[in-house]
Amino acid sequence: MRWAFILQVAGLIILFVGLTMLVPLGFSLVAKDGTALSFIQAMLFCIAAGGGLFLVFRTDKGHTITHREGMCIVTLGWIGAGLSGALPFYLSGSIPGFTDCVFETFSGFTTTGSTILGDIESLPSSILMWRSQTQWLGGMGIVLLSLAILPFLGVGGMQLYKAEVPGPTPDKLRPRIRDTARLLWQVYLLLSALQFLFLLAGGMSFSDSLSHTFTTMPTGGFSPKNASIGHYDSVYFDLVITFFMFMAGVNFVLHFQLLRRNPSTWWRSPEFKFYLLVTLGVTLIVTWCIYGSVYSSLGQALRYSLFQVVSIFTTTGYATADYELWGPLAQFLLLLCMIVGGSAGSTAGGVKCMRVIILIKQAQRELMRLVHPRAVVPIKLGGKLVSDEILSGIVGFFLLYLALAALSMCILAALGLDLLTSIGAVIACISNIGPGLGQVGPTDNFGHLPALGKWVLTFCMLLGRLEIYTVIVLFSGEFWRS
Amino acid sequence: MRIIIVGSGEVGYHIARRLSAENKDVVIIDLNPEVLERVGERLDVETVLGSGSSPRVLEEAGVKQADILLAVTDSDEINLIACTFSNILAPKLTKVARIRNPEYTDYKDILASDLHIDIVINPEQEVIGSIERLMSTPGAAEVSEFPDVNITLAGMWIRDNCPLAGMNLAELKQAVGIDGFIVGAIVRGEKLIIPSGKHKVLPGDMMYFVCAHQDLEGVLKAFGASTGSQHKVLIIGGGNIGFKLAQNLEQKKGLQVKIMDRERSRCDFLAQNLTRTIVLQGDGSDQRLLTEENVGSMDVVVSVTGDEENNVLCSLLAKNMGAKLTVTRINKFAYLPLMRAVGLEHIVSPRLSAANSILRHVRKGAVISSISIKEDAEALEIVAREDSPLVGRPIKDLDFPSGAIVLCMVRGKQVIIPTGESVIQPQDKVMIMSTSKHISDVEKKIT
Question: Which of B271, B280, B292 is nearest residue A378 as measured by Cβ atoms?
Fold first, then answer.
């Protein structure tokens, strides 16, 4: 482990986060909302701290990154980004308390979208813009962005890529990792630009369009409005945002194939089929649950059900309706969707469809082996063999996900939260959704939780975004043995 | 007609024997002097020692005067090279190559256009084809097709409980009641009979008949043979044949296919490359495994491992446990007559299939194709040209040898079963059944 090198790269990431504050600074100067000074202070701090780390620990030795160093860089980089990103909130005083500032920032970078704010609209617009922007940066990945921009990380960047990009087997689109990272960011940028134009065309204000684009494509879920998307009560916005949320939950490799005019790859992808079918199936069942009891017209029931299912399944977490009023079956299905999450290689959180499909196939295989003890049954996905290493990695991931979620729920319960709130809050955070159930439902916020609870949930968000292994491996004794 | 055969293995030897029995000039090339000596002693053929891939040896064998070159060694590469050099030495020669590796056969166009190989025979493909035909008509023991005229030649065993056993052929025709059905040959014990209307079919006979392809099932039903389709198939042996067969079968709706192989690594390969088939690791002669996998309820058990003794055992075991139909792969020609004795009716042999399909292409001139029955007879498909001596006379005046008959004529799409008074017209396709002894007489009569 070369600590100097790790700190150097982490410093670069902090420096980088500081530079991106230019965008909200610009907004602040235009709106004259009095937060410009805090942004300048925060920027200077990030540049000094990050640049300092970079200069002090600069090494000229080769930059081949080992597996361990990769995980360390990504985890430290994310913690650094989360802490430095909290500075504008803290310095401007718009969010009181260091704990709340860090919770809100991590919720941003990890694209969770859980908030401690009760009255969002009372905050200055530039602060809200920064809040949305953290999600956009975190969605495709801060490290990936560094990979795309910083030339010297290219060698051995695969270790960083693997540690940050979600999914059991990250796809490399180009022979060089730097080109892959660029390509993914370009696709992300293109989809974001499209959504921004559609929102603008529908009559949303410039800054709100940008804010919502910043939080839709990364499946984040922060909204500058108290009532989230429900604020607009517009079928057009519901549909546009549903569409882009759905797209954000699709593996970005498929978007890339679409740009290469290869649309048939979509139907050949078993994960996309699963994702689409689950979305449609759950929407229909939820519509059936709420038609008549909550909404008197079928159209209304379908509209709110579709938006809420896509929002939860892609782990975005926008709300147009209070799903806690929707009866137990609909809520339970939404809870399951929270755990499953979108596709591998997308910006969504959760366990991911691909892992769920493979786990289902593994269960089928065991059943098959009981009936035919001598059968040789490989697990195939889209005609390709899933190797035993990947399979055991997925089983391990799922077990760790459940175990860590259970442990966090225990801690919240010990702090005196009721059962539904504990379960809902932990799943909402570890799957990077946003709103949970009980006292942290879509109409509530996380502000009233005890400080320790907020720190546990912050850690859950990081675990969820970096897909557990990258973070948790730092806590294993074997990692530190040289 | 001068025919050069490269390779005197089972396939080469078999073809040489058949062709020399028909009074053709046969030259055999082989590397092994002992094998060659034995061939020279047993058959009336010329032998040349050397490799078929050598142009010098080919010249020595008289490739420039030959009509057909059959490259049938066990090595694809030698067969390919033999054909390539022959093409350079004698471009007009008809070249037939036995090629098994799919890496080559997948490029059939290149083999035909650039290497000028006229006919590529893939024995494994032929065997898979015959297994599939047997499965679709389980009542028949052998099924071959004349594809261009939609006529099938099939052989079936007459069972003790067959309702039509004991009838003579004239009665049989009434009883079956299908136009275009005619018995071409009856094999009784070791003897092959080209029958007339007075011959009877008896239990234990192997009866060969022709009929239109779509009538086959009806004919089999009339004889009380089991028809109907299969649903559950077990393939024992996951080699090339087993794998390809499973690949073909799993695409058909409503079929449940299981395949079994002894080797773990082969099972992995099979499981990765097959989608709906259940792959089992184990020995096909392991009775416990067969019970566990419910062999008794199988419709078909196909034993196609590389070990033919094992195949026979697996098939017998499966049959004993209640499998409805078994298909067994045999390599050695010597075993073929034994199979009926131990109760296995459906036999396939890659070498026999290869030999038969090569022989189909050896015919020249008016003969379009031919199908062999055992070693003893052949069904020929002939185009009646305008100047042919067959045309324009009643069939009874054709003066065919006693071992040959006209089975039927195909005029347009119509199948005509001739009487003695029928007259063959120009452009008719005529099916003739002849014993091997009389083939050359028949060939003289028709040209």
Answer: B271
- Top residue of A361, A376, A380 to mutate, by most chain B CBs within 10 Å, is A376
Q: Rounded to an integer, what distance in angstroms lies between the CA atom of residue B283 and that of residue A261?
A: 49
Averaged pLDDT, B64-72: 91
Same domain as B80, residue B9: yes
State the angle between helix axes of A125-140 and A22-31 in degrees (0 to 180), rounded to the nearest 10: 160
- B393 has a pLDDT exceeding 90: no
Domain assignment present for residue B139? The answer is no
> Is B418 contained in some domain?
yes
Is residue B275 domain-shared with residue B319, that is, in the same domain?
yes
Are B371 and B336 contained in the same domain?
no
Same-domain pairing of B249 and B349: yes
**Both tokens assigned to A237:** 């916005």
Whether residue B396 is found in the same domain as residue B349: no
Beta-sheet pairing, B182-188 with B151-157: unpaired
| Structure confidence at residue B9 as a pLDDT band (50, 70, 90) | confident
Q: pLDDT, tens digit, for every residue of A437-456?
A: 989 988 889 999 999 999 99
- Residue B311: what residue type? N
Which residues in A lie closer than 8 A to residue B270 (C-beta atoms)?
376
Domain end point (choices B121, B150, B181): B121
B122 band by pLDDT with thresholds 50, 70 and 90: confident
The domain locations on chain A are 3-222
Query: For chain B, what is the domain count?
Result: 3
Which residues on B lie below 8 Å from A378 (Cβ)? 268, 271-272
Q: How many CB atoms within 10 Å of residue B104?
A: 19
Cα gap B100→B126, rounded to integer Å: 10
* pLDDT score recorded for residue A370: 92
Residue B117 backbone dihedrals phi, psi, to 5 degrees: -90, 120
**B217 in reach of chain A (CB within 8 A):** no
Ramachandran area for residue A292 (φ above 0: left; ψ -120 to 50: alpha; else beta): left
Burial status of residue B251 (CB atoms within 10 A of its CB: 0-12, 13-18, 19 or more): exposed
Q: Which residue is it, tokens 């919240």?
A: A412
Residue type for position A121 = E
What ipTM describes this predicted complex? 0.71
**Average pLDDT for chain A:** 90
pTM above 0.90, yes or no: no
Cα angle B371, B376, B379 (rounded to 5 degrees) comes to 25
B217 is a domain residue: no
CATH number at residue B283: 3.40.50.720
Residue B335 inside a domain? The answer is yes
Residue span of the structural domain in which B437 resides: 354-446
d(CA A140, CA A183): 11
Q: Which of residues 226-265 of B touch A (CB under 8 A)?
A: 264
DSSP A254-296: HHHHHHTT-THHHHH-HHHHHHHHHHHHHHHHHHHHHBTTTBS
User: pLDDT at position A62, please?
Assistant: 61
Domain co-membership, B395 together with B344: no
Asked whether residue B255 falls in the same domain as residue B237, the answer is: yes
Residue bearing the bigger pLDDT, A210 or B324: A210
If one compares B397 and A429, the residue with the highest pLDDT of the two is A429
